[in-house]
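One chain given next:
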Amino acid sequence: MSTIKVDTYLTRSGASEIAIDKLKGVSTADSIAIQTGAVTTTLQQGMLKATLHLNSLGDNTESNNLNISLVDDDGPGDFGFHWASNFATANYIMTAAANDGGASTAIFGMDLTYGTNTTSATDVEVNYVTATDNRTAADGYGHMFMFAGDLA
């Protein structure tokens, strides 16, 4: 086996970049260590594993979909997400945001409730909080979801 040691890698145009199709850990195939100063983390831990922008008014238009194979519409603000690649455990993490789409009643916040989490799907219920402090299960112009955790 050969070893290449360089201080800086430059392309022909002088840009400092590396263009490759695949990275593979040397000691563990599923682990690429990233070190920043004294702190080390893995590339896989820092990546989102599923994302979705869902316009649930009308036809449930999906965009920016990553790792979501199916969206169930179980009623206003009630959705089931099915993963294309399953999570390793049901203890993954979700965060979300909403776009009111210029609605006359401003959305001040969202109450999110996980229904049932499994490694292959989750159920999410969205309630909007308005100026009058009403919490209403609602469809919206833009539900934006991100999920992090280990994939199986």
About this structure: The mean pLDDT is 79.
